[in-house]
Automatic annotation (TrEMBL), chain A:
One of its GO terms (cellular component) is plasma membrane. Residues 24-273 form the ABC transporter domain. It comes from Mesorhizobium alhagi CCNWXJ12-2. Belongs to the ABC transporter superfamily. This is Oligopeptide/dipeptide ABC transporter, ATP-binding protein. It is found in: Cell inner membrane. GO terms for biological process: peptide transport; transmembrane transport. GO terms for molecular function: ATP binding; ATP hydrolysis activity. InterPro entries: AAA+_ATPase, ABC_Ni/Peptide_Import, ABC_transporter-like_ATP-bd, ABC_transporter-like_CS, Oligopep_ABC_C, P-loop_NTPase. PANTHER family: DIPEPTIDE TRANSPORT ATP-BINDING PROTEIN DPPD, OLIGOPEPTIDE TRANSPORT ATP-BINDING PROTEIN APPD. The keyword Signal does not apply. Its main location: membrane. The keyword Ribosomal protein does not apply.
TrEMBL record, chain B:
Belongs to the ABC transporter superfamily. This is Oligopeptide/dipeptide ABC transporter ATPase subunit. The keyword Nucleotide-binding applies. SUPFAM superfamilies: P-loop containing nucleoside triphosphate hydrolases. It is found in: Cell inner membrane. It comes from Mesorhizobium alhagi CCNWXJ12-2. The keyword ATP-binding applies.
Amino acid sequence: MRAETAEREGSARRAVPAAAAPVLQVSNLSIRFAAQPADMIDDVSFAIGSGRTLCLVGESGCGKSVTSLAIMGLLPQRVAQIQGGTARFLGEDLLSMGRAALEAKRGNEIAMIFQEPMTSLNPVFTVGEQVAESVRRHRKYGRTEARERALEMFRRVRIPAPEKRLDEYPHQLSGGMRQRVMIAMALANDPVLLIADEPTTALDATIQAQILDLIRDLQAETGTALLLITHDFGVVAEIADDVAVMYAGHVVEHGPVEAIFNDPQHPYTLGLMGSMPALGGHTGRLMTIAGSVPPADAMPAGCRFSTRCPFVVEKCRSERPPTRLMPGGHGVACFRAPLELNVRAQPQ
Amino acid sequence: MMSDMIIETRDLIRHFKSGGGLFGKATTIHAVDRVTLSVRRGETFAIVGESGCGKSTLARLLLRLIEPTAGQVFYDGKELTAASPRELRALRGELQFIFQDPYSSLNPRMTVGALIAEPLQVHTQMKSEERKTAVRGLLRKVGLRPEHADRYPHEFSGGQRQRIGIARALASGPKLLIGDEPVSALDVSVQAQIINLVEDLKQEFGLTLIIIAHDLAVIRHMSDRVAVMYLGEVVELAETEALFSRPLHPYTQALLQAIPAPAPGAARGRQVLAGDIPSPAAPPDGCRFHTRCQHATELCGRMKPPLGDAGEGRSVACHYWREITPPPLDTLTASTRSNSAQQRFELYRRYTKTPRDQGSDAVTHNNAAPAGGI
């Protein structure tokens, strides 16, 4: 293996303008789990344009993965009921679509990458066969053609010695290589929308950097819209055009990535960023968020963050804060924003 | 006589045999190879590296939780690797370990009180009543409540379980705490609580900390000195700020450049390390990093560079560290936060100030307490 370094593409992705109509438009999505007194996903809305990347950020249990599974129609209906809302993909509502129609889109126009590639790859087939299979599932390709497409995809995701790798089994590949195979499979049918759920969380730092670069480069080539789910603001800073911060099933703040980083408004966003050693400073105490996410049976009627918010007032507990739009497409669901104007300088 | 060094290792080696069953030949995994380092009393020493670099094996060797293949470990001048089982048992109380996943290290059939009392029983002469008082005190110290003693581990959140693991480690009155990825399984906001807690306790009990982690931001925040490992070897050792501002080894440089940017746009134009880590079963000859190093020459493939003195108390194992210019680490530049955003962070800090961050991610969550004030 020869040492080489890949130069970054730069900001090519920003050159792709957002199309007038979004690729995916999720509106007022609410989902309730069976026998739960409160909605797991609460009135979630966001949109992604062609060639754009939206990051859904939040901690475990905030509903970011459930949202993406709902869009893909992968939530078991007996357990999770959709209470309302739509998820329009190129104008068509995915949530009310029949099973066959959805299956024709899944893995084809809409593709998905998961966190742990080992559990999404079948251990008894070669990785080449698995990529070829996903091509043949949606295209009238012969075996040879499909294998050729798989090889082409392996080259595009920069797998070294691709001809040899095609005939290997998942366990023979490293974590980074497996994730490349998953990306090859996801992109093999030229999807319009790619959903990636924590695609780099299980990877080492240097491998994570490789995969993020790869996703960004491929996106610039193909113009695929990307919905990326992560808990890591570092990943967000690297890849997002737009960000939606989720807390307890609700989008508390959303906007262009620069606005979220340079001008965060929601107390939860502040707490989360201040908790990160990379953003919270190299010395001194880290900021923390007191308490924990309330369980469904104790979900407050008002703002869902009100039980942990340092700036809570009576209104927050009883009333839902609507998402208010700030300049630059930046939306915040908080009665007290902007804090520097509405909050006393010293706590009482 | 007290030496400045609490832990020292000399040419520590640990190889694992793998395979050699029905299928195929046995291979030797070079998990830790000739590691010589010393940890100062009272400092926070970090060992950093990617998966498979041998950092967890090294941590276990330091406390002799596993036996070395060769080499020595000294604790307070005594050779730990030559201690008898009885001597070792007597020292165990002073040397404690915090695990990554506290849940798998806590017996699910014991109450939290019994779990914390166990080390007191082994390492102290306390009577049953004294132990109960001590357990309550320890629970408070780690930000839990005394009444939590009667509960079982499954009733607690991940962050609280880590607090229980820390209370258990503190029970025997340790001088040295080793944390193997102590916060990496936790959510960001909980991670911050545990980091603050560990730093407070270190101060309060005058502990020496050794932190094993892959997250460089956590390392930078917590540690005084850092050892960087690659394929079983220490390739660079330096004071934390020196390492982060001017990394000398090409691997350290690559690692720092791979840190996700703290602000959008900051990571453009960086160099990304290509390729995968070679298998520790067949480490490359010469410098183990030469297969991925952009500065490698023929010499690097032939001759292993020793971990040599690089001045200012740093060491580096590279033939060419003097010639290589450290890359601009623009990923580490200050953020571009607006003034109003800075005011908001300041307000948040002011409004959440508590004497000690409470473990209030409690099962019994108190809706009336707005900010950690349990």
